[in-house]
Every structure is written in C-alpha cells, then in structure tokens.
C-alpha cells in the first residue's frame, strides 16, 4: 500500500504522516571457510503518525493482512487519545537534491551465485594465507525503498542498495583465543574491494601470531580507526540532540566553546555521495545536510530531529532516523566524518618508542559513558616497539576520559589517512600519549 | 486480531507437502505488542504495533540451508520454492540433523491479568506513576527513562518430519532508569524486571524498582571512581549471573566448536574448568522462583526445552545444541536453537543460565578479605571467548573483612579459563535475576540468569591508577 493511500484513510485527525519501508535482501553465509547457507528476505511495513488537538499518536504494522490495516487505524486513535502535547508539526515539501551513488541497479539484482562467488574469493584467499584460523561470515546485498507522505504536502520515495561482506576470524590455541572481525560495505558491489578486505584482516592476523608481554603504565596509545570509536562514541552520545534536550549531555551548554584539541573536526554528513548513511531526506521529511559538529575543537552543533530541535530552540538538522517501520523517529547519525591531520600514519607510528596499538576493545559502550569515561579490556591490540608492531597484547585494560584523551595534553595527532570503517564512519588513526593501561601487577 | 491458527496449520502442511526438499520447516509468527516510554517528565511514546511474517528453511540433497523470510503470507508456496532454490545454489557438505521425535503440541498463554486486555491508558498511568517516583526521590534526578513493553509472540511451526507446534510466548518488560546530573557528571541507576509467561499483575507493586533506581543514581554522584588494579572480588547474584552467561555460557554454545577442531579441544568434555564447588546449568524449563525470560515449551526447531548440565563439580559435562550442531558432534539435541523472530534463522542460544547454590554465607565470603571489591548488578557485558568484560552498576570497597565506602566505574575483566579457576567460594543464597537480553549475530533474545554470591580471586579492575 502506498503512503498516500494510507494517508487518505486517516479520519478525523488534524495532521497525518505515513512512512513506509520495504526491502529485499539476499545473503550467503560461510562457516569454517565454506559456503553453508543462503537466505532471501522480503520485508515491508508502515508507520503512521497523527496529530490531533495538539497531541501526537503513532502506530505501525508489518502485518499485510486487511484486518491488520483496520487495526492500525484503531491503534493510532488509541495512541492519540493518551499522547502528551507535541511541539512538532509535520514539515511541508522542501526541495532536496538527490545524493548520487546510493542506488546501483546491478547490486540490486545480485543473486546467491554472485554472492557465493564473491565470498569464495575472500574466504579462499584467507584460508590459504592463514591455516589454523577458522573464518566465517556473510556476503549480503540489499535493495529497498523508504517513502514518506504527510498532510502538509511533503512526499518522497527514495531507493537504495547496499552490499557488504563481514568476516570473523577465530584462532584457538587451547586457552589462547583470538577473535577478529572485519566489515566492508557500500551502496554498490563495485565499491567493495575484496583484496583490501583480505589484506586488512590478514595484516592483523600476521601481527597477532605471537603474544607478547606489555608493561602497564601511562603510555602512548594508538587507536586504529576501528578502535578510535572508543573515543568518538561518548562524544556522539553527548552531541545527540536527545541527550541535550534531556539535560544529560555534558556538552548541553557549551555551544561555541572549545571542548577538544583544535586539530579535531567532526562532521555529520548526510549528503556524502555514494555513502551508506546518505539520503536526500531524513525519516521525517527534512532534507539531509552536512552538519559540522566540532570544528577546530569548537562545539558547533548537535544532531536533531523535529522534536529535539524544537525543544532546545535549535534548527532541525535532518537527522531523524527510525529503526524500521515499527519505531518512532529519534536523532541519529548519518555518516560520521573526522578530518585527518597533516602527518602520514606511518610517520606518526615511527615516532612511538613503546606503546599500545588498539584495534578493538571489549564491551565498548558499557558502563557510564556519557560523561566520557571509559574502562575496557583490549580485544585485538598490539605492542609497538621502536615504531614497529611486534606482537599481540592481551589481558590489559584501557581507562580514561575521552575529553581528556582528546585534549592537547594527550593528543599527539591524527593521521592524514582517513579510513571508512563499519560502513558509515570515516576516521583517521588517533595517536595519544600518557593514557592509562592497567594490567595484572599494576595495582 | 482474528485467530488464524487452524488456517495456518492447513496452509503450512500443504506447503510442506509441496516442498521438493528432503527437509523443510516453516514458521509463521504473529506478534502484537505495546510500548510506553517516559523520558523526564514527558510521555515520549505510547503505542501498539502489529507484526506478522513467515520463515521457510530447506535442506537440499547436496546443499546447505536455504532460507526465505517474508511478510506477505500469500507468498508462502513461492517462498518454499525460493528457499529450496537457495539451498540448491550452494552445494556443500550435507547438514545432518540430530533426530528428534515428531511432536504435535499447542501451548496457549495462561495469563492471570492478560495485558492484551489492559487499555493503553492504564499502561501509561502505571508508567507515569513509576516515573514520578524517580523524579520525586531526589532533586538531582532530572532525567529518566521509564519503559513498559509487552508482547505476545504466537508461533506456528511445522516441519516435514511431522512436527506441528503452536506456542504463544508472552513477554513483559519494565525498566526504571534514573539519571542524576551534577555539572558535567551524569550517573545512572537502572532497575529492570523482565517476565515471561505472566500477565500485567507483575507490574503492580513495583514502586521499589523506581525508588531503587533513583537512589542508586544519586548515590553514584558521590562515589569515588575505583582505583584500578587486581583485587579479590565478591559479586552479587545478579552480576554473577551475567558473569556465567558472558564468561562461560557463550563458550558452551556448540556452534562455536562444531566446525572448529581447536575450539573443540579447548572445550573437551571432562576438562576441568573450576574447583569442585562449581556447578553450572542452562535450563529452558520453568524453574522454581522465576518467571524466566528463557523459558518456553519448545525451541525454534521443534525440540522440547530441557535442563542441561554444563559443569558438574568443576568439570565440563555438557553443551548447548541446535539439531545441526548435535548431529555434527553426535550428541543429544538440547533445545537451544532460538530465533529472535520470523526474520531470522535459529542460532544456538542460551535460555536461563545459572551457577548452582553452594554453601558459603556472605559474611564468611568477605571476612578474610583485607582489601577487595564488592560489585553488584550488571551494567552490560561482553565476551570475546577468551576474554570477557562486564561492568557493575554499583560497588563498595571491602576493607578488613567489612563493607566500606561506595566506589564507581567498576569494570571487571579477565580471561575466562583463569577466572573460573579463581572462583574460590560460592554462596548459599541463590537468586534469579529477571532482566536480560543477549545479542548474538544481530539477534536479541530474552535470557534468564541466576547465581548466588560468588567470590573470585585476582580480578583485574580497570580504573584510575
């Protein structure tokens, strides 16, 4: 059913909005390096919001039966009847140019055979290079469409495609277990380089062949782009309009102030061409935009949906996101881009005499992260000695506060190279010093 | 919603008959649920949603699993064809399923106060009340998240070996999360109650949940961060439950070892994992004292749930299986193949995992600790098999055998094998903790955890030096 058709059926409300999401995907699963399963998925659902006498109501369904469509209207009315006063009104049509590179016809048509062939290249190459390591993972393509129509005249439908490969490596030597993970994704299969995926994982498996001791203390710590999420995530929590509105963000009253080292700039870019997080509109019909959040260490903006923008007296930033048709919008990130520095990564690495290279930690996001505190055991991490990576480090934890670690006192610099990780993050390597690494015997 | 069960049986059995695959299973699910959320003083959401979809999985003669999932049930026959085509397109070593007796069974929800009959308005008022308690407890508690959610997932399952199962799975969650703010510092108190197979009556008289959350959040503002280092640690039943789930339970999931000879060697039966005081089990049955989130009649492959002993007197004696992993390792299926919903294939998952009661009293457990940490309640945890980490919601120092000042930011980390060997005392005060979801490969499952107090030597705690 089209969004417009459902909208017409909403009776007796002052304003209405219908969001639909449909997608089909195909994935091939590999276990122990061998193809093991194939799966096709087809989903569709819709979410309805309505405003009546200043109150907001919502319901959604993925049940396609006529009975469910009837029930949906009743559910919206029930929700309206108990809803709190709302401050938002649905936005009128706003022009937004299409972002190039988000839909690829060829990717939308990939079937099991093509995905299997792609996966076989990657898994065969890894298994040949690393006997004794067990690989598993998925190759997946998806194609879908979001649409939105509201009674203020906004109406759009956007198509997208996605292609991704994710691989987990497991090396077990009695009590010594190494688990590592790599993910690469883009709107088009042509943008995912199987050799690069193999090379990335292979590099770390080679580094991890020997486990070495690490001398705990306040030492230089190098965060690979994946590992640097430990530092960026608490910031992203604090930059979210929701925590600002609720009064829990430590940054809530610091717009215009310097909060980090002046070499740090962080942008939410909802219009980055060919990027998984991009779109012309957000999930409330607000045009997506490029929003500098931190520029030269200075706090410039938060990310907002209609509700958080209105309640904080700021402008919507086109960051409303829904976790599918059954969920209501909330501010989220599109593509997070941290600007690179001036020095090549290799040069910065060469300057480390004794330090820790962190690729991943365990339990990211656990504990009380909003004030910026972290304390996590490393997962995949390495000893750097005289500028060289010399082996895997286990059983040590990192502890600190991201606002301190990203201040001039601790920040050595950011690499010139910026890498795409986990699909929608573009991050440099982060070089820091005097970070607390705790291990046995350090109490 | 109209009851579709009878109709589904005909349609599923018809589709199974038409399937060209040697093995086919079909699952149709109907889920209706409501959710109420307060943030601060404001009602953020009050909604009912509907979900319905299908899942078909086939094995081809020389292929692996072919699967199709969908929302439009009119497509059932076509989806059986697609699933079979998927299976045929991936020639591989044949999957052998452990045999189970075909069963025909219908399990209906038996709810004292059926939450499907409770008006949305009454649910809103209930949460409004709990939310107000948190906001009134302390002026520094300025932000809250109060959540009520319920659902009944009706599962209709049939396979080509003659099994037909209908199971209604009611689940209810109540969360009281308080945030106390002072300057840049924000501290959280979080209390939760998850209940399977019980009705709205569970939500009544839960005011203490809200008071505790607010009080804990406030107390944490004044607690000093723990000094990082290596300590003897006593963990309370709630945290010990998360510990056994994270640190040990995941290694017991047989998909970890089924196709990995090195992992099989590490997890060989008969291997010693701890001192003889250590006993660990995982149960999908109704256990005394708990309306546990991981309790069902059947798993999502039609295997009856049971209680599975994992560690007996410190020695590994069992593991958790799907039909596939049991078939591969020539062990008995245990009923641990669970799927989040129709959109997902079942994975080997825990149900309700617990450390059995020992005989040490709490006082005896701490009396000879000169300097240690008493850590309570989990605030998230993760394991990477060899290494695990879990965070405690609140904690106290133990000094000269007595509980001393509160500390915060206590995150415990360690190597599983060493840590289990370092479990030096197990309490006589077993308790279930009814609050848990576990994530694995993108699927979130309700799970139960339980334990008495447990003492562990030489635990690394991250924190300020």
Report on this structure:
The complex is a heterodimer of chains A (443) and B (465). Chain A has 443 residues and is of the alpha+beta class. Chain A has 2 domains: 3-205, PmbA/TldD superfamily (PmbA/TldD fold); 210-443, no CATH class. Helices cover 21% and strands 39% of the residues of chain A. Chain A has 10 helices and 19 strands. Chain B has 465 residues and is α+β, with helices and mostly antiparallel strands. Chain B folds into 2 domains: 5-222, PmbA/TldD superfamily (PmbA/TldD fold, 2-Layer Sandwich), CATH 3.30.2290.10; 225-462, no CATH class. Chain B has 9 helices and 25 strands. Chain B has helices at residues 5-18, 76-88, 120-137, 207-222, 237-252, 261-266, 323-329, 362-367, 416-421, and strands at residues 23-39, 42-59, 65-70, 104-107, 141-159, 164-182, 185-196, 224-225, 229-235, 280-283, 307-312, 315-316, 337-338, 347-348, 352-355, 371-384, 387-399, 402-408, 411-415, 423-426, 431-433, 437-440, 443-446, 448-451, 454-462. In chain B, the strands form 5 sheets. In chain B, strands 1, 2, 3, 4, 5, 6 and 7 form a 7-stranded mixed β-sheet that branches. Chain B has a 6-stranded mixed β-sheet with strand order 12-11-10-15-24-21. A 5-stranded mixed barrel of chain B has the order 9-16-17-19-25. In chain B, α3 (120-137) runs parallel beside α4. The longest helix of chain B is centred in the first third of the chain and has 18 residues, at 120-137. The radius of gyration of chain B is 24 Å and the shape is globular. The chains are: A alpha+beta (443), B alpha+beta (465). β3 (55-61) of chain A pairs parallel with β2 of chain B, so a sheet runs across the interface.
């Amino acid at each position: 059913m089209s969004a417009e058709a459902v909208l017409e059926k909403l009776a007796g409300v002052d304003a209405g909005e219908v969001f639909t999401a449909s997608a089909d995907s195909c994935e091939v699963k590999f276990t122990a390096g061998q193809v093991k399963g194939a799966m096709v998925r087809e989903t569709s659902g819709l979410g309805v919001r309505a405003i009546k006498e200043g109150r907001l109501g919502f319901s959604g369904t993925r049940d396609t039966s006529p009975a469910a469509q009837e029930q949906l209207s009743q559910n919206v009315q029930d929700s309206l009847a108990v809803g709190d006063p709302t401050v938002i009104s649905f936005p009128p049509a706003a022009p937004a140019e299409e972002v190039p590179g988000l839909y690829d016809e060829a990717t939308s048509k990939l079937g099991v055979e093509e995905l299997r062939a792609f996966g076989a290249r990657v898994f065969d190459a890894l298994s040949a290079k690393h006997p004794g390591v067990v690989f598993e993972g998925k190759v997946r393509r998806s194609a879908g469409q979001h649409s939105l129509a509201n009674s203020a005249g906004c109406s759009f439908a956007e198509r997208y495609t996605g292609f991704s490969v994710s691989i987990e490596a497991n090396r077990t030597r009695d009590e010594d277990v190494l688990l590592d993970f790599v993910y690469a994704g883009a709107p088009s299969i042509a943008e995912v380089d199987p050799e690069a995926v193999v090379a990335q994982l292979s590099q770390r498996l080679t580094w991890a062949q020997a486990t070495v001791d690490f001398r705990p203390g306040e030492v230089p710590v190098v965060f690979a782009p994946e590992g640097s999420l430990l530092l960026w995530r608490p910031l992203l929590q604090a930059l979210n309009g929701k925590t600002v509105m609720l009064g829990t963000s430590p940054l809530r009253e610091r717009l215009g102030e310097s909060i980090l080292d002046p070499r740090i700039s962080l942008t939410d870019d909802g219009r980055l061409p060919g990027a998984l997080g991009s779109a012309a509109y957000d999930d409330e019909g607000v045009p997506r935009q490029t929003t500098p959040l931190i520029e030269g260490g200075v706090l410039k903006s938060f990310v907002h949906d209609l509700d958080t923008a209105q309640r904080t007296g700021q402008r919507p930033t086109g960051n409303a996101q829904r976790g599918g048709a059954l969920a209501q919008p909330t501010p989220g990130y599109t593509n997070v881009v941290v600007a690179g520095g001036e020095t090549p990564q290799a040069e910065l690495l060469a300057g480390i005499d004794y330090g820790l290279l962190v690729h991943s930690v365990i339990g990211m996001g656990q504990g009380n992260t909003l004030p910026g505190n972290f304390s996590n055991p490393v997962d995949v991490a390495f000893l750097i000695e005289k500028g060289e990576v010399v082996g895997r480090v286990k059983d040590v934890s990192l502890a600190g506060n991201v606002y301190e670690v990203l201040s001039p006192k601790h920040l050595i610099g950011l690499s010139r190279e910026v890498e795409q990780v986990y699909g929608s993050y573009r991050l440099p390597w982060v070089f820091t010093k005097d970070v607390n690494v705790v291990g046995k015997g350090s109490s | 919603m109209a009851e579709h069960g009878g109709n589904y049986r005909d349609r599923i059995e018809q589709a199974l008959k038409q399937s060209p695959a040697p093995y086919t299973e079909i699952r149709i699910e109907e889920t209706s649920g409501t959710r109420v959320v307060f943030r601060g003083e404001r009602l953020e959401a009050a909604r009912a949603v509907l979900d319905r979809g299908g899942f078909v999985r086939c094995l081809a003669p020389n292929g692996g699993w072919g699967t199709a999932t969908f929302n439009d049930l009119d497509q059932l026959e076509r989806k059986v064809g697609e699933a079979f085509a998927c299976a045929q397109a991936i020639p591989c070593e044949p999957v052998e399923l452990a045999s189970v007796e075909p069963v025909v069974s219908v399990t209906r929800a038996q709810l004292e106060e059926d939450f499907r009959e409770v008006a949305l308005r009454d649910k809103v008022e209930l949460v409004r009340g709990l939310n107000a308690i948190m906001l009134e407890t302390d002026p520094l508690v300025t932000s809250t998240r109060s959540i009520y959610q319920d659902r009944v997932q009706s599962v209709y399952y049939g396979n080509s070996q003659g099994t037909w199962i209908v199971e209604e799975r009611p689940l209810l969650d109540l969360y009281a999360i308080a945030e106390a703010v002072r300057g840049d510092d924000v501290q959280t108190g979080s209390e939760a109650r998850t209940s399977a197979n019980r009705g709205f009556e569970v939500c009544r008289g839960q005011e203490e949940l809200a008071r505790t959350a607010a009080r804990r959040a406030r107390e944490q503002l004044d607690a000093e961060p723990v000094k990082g280092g290596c300590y003897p640690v006593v963990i309370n039943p709630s945290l010990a439950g998360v510990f056994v789930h994270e640190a040990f339970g995941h290694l017991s999931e047989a998909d970890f070892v089924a196709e990995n000879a090195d992992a099989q060697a590490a997890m060989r039966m008969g291997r010693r994992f701890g001192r003889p005081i250590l006993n660990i089990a995982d149960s999908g049955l109704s256990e005394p004292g708990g309306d546990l989130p991981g309790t069902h009649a059947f798993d999502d492959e039609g295997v009856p749930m049971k209680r599975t002993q994992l560690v007996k007197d410190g020695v590994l004696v069992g593991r958790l299986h799907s039909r596939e992993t049991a078939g591969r390792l020539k062990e008995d299926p245990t009923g641990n193949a669970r799927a989040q919903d129709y959109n997902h294939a079942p994975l080997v998952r825990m149900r309700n995992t617990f450390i059995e009661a020992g005989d040490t009293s709490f006082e005896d457990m701490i009396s000879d600790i000169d300097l240690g940490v008493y850590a309570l309640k989990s605030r998230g945890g993760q394991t990477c098999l060899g290494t695990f980490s879990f965070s405690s919601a609140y904690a106290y120092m133990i000094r000269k055998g007595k509980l001393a000042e509160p500390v915060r930011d206590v995150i415990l980390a360690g190597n599983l094998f060493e840590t289990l060997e370092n479990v030096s005392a197990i309490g006589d005060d077993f308790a279930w903790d009814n609050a848990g979801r576990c994530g694995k490969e993108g699927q979130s499952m309700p799970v139960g955890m339980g334990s008495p107090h447990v003492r562990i030597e030489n635990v690394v705690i991250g924190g300020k030096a």
